[in-house]
Write a structure and sequence with these properties.
Layout: H1 4-17, H2 30-41, H3 49-52, E1 56-61, E2 65-76, E3 82-92, E4 95-98, H4 100-111, E5 114-115, H5 117-132, E6 136-145, H6 146-149, E7 160-167, H7 168-171, H8 173-182
Parallel strand pairs: 2-5
Antiparallel strand pairs: 1-4, 2-3, 3-6, 6-7
Helix pairs in contact: 1-2, 4-5
């Protein structure tokens, strides 16, 4: 549970530490706004992504299922600046499927934590794999990181790509080729 009162006090101290007046009209309510924002941005800390994947259906389906171009935002744990992008989430059911919104919900839960993109992809793949006992799982994330766009090397417009595969989508070439064809890549 995010302690909003602690965040308010800490952020007021940060405003003071940068040489601003935390009581100035434009900043007076910023500590409360930041605290509410952090409660929202980090709400995934109190949720389990496997619970989102718990409601499924036995359909006997065993061919590739994919949702792509799913927008997501997360907070980089190194500088506490956002990274945003798109996800492609794929799995080969072992007869059991879930609604597409359940895959997206699992992504949202994991993205609403302090993260690194590599871990986010792996955690999502593992949650799908363990919940569905899928024959294969793949997650591809493409994101721009504000810690690199607006500070440091200042290179806006970049795309960091991470890919995680499990099961047949890692070991079987024909399934990997099908995955990348659906992603529009070779």
């Amino acid at each position: 549970m995010v302690d909003q009162e602690k965040i308010e006090k800490a952020f007021a101290s940060i405003i003071d530490a940068i040489g601003e007046d935390p009581k100035r009209e434009g900043l007076a309510y910023s500590p409360q706004r930041v605290a509410r924002m952090y409660a929202e941005v980090f709400s995934g800390l109190d949720e389990d992504p496997t619970e989102a994947l718990g409601t499924g259906f036995e359909e006997g389906h065993d061919e590739l299922v994919m949702v792509k171009n799913v927008r997501f935002s997360s907070m980089c744990e190194h500088h506490f600046l956002p990274f945003t992008g798109t996800a492609a989430i794929a799995y080969i059911p072992n007869g059991r499927i879930v609604g597409v919104s359940k895959l997206v919900r699992a992504l949202e839960i994991l993205a609403k934590r302090p993260q690194v993109q590599e871990r986010l992809a792996a955690q999502l793949a593992d949650a799908i794999d363990s919940s569905l006992k899928a024959q294969g799982v793949a997650v591809v994330l493409e994101a721009e990181h504000m810690c690199m766009s607006c500070r440091g090397v200042e290179k806006p417009g970049h795309q960091m790509v991470t890919s995680v595969s499990r099961g047949l989508l890692l070991t079987q070439d024909s399934k990997r080729q099908e995955l990348f064809a659906l992603l529009g890549q070779r």
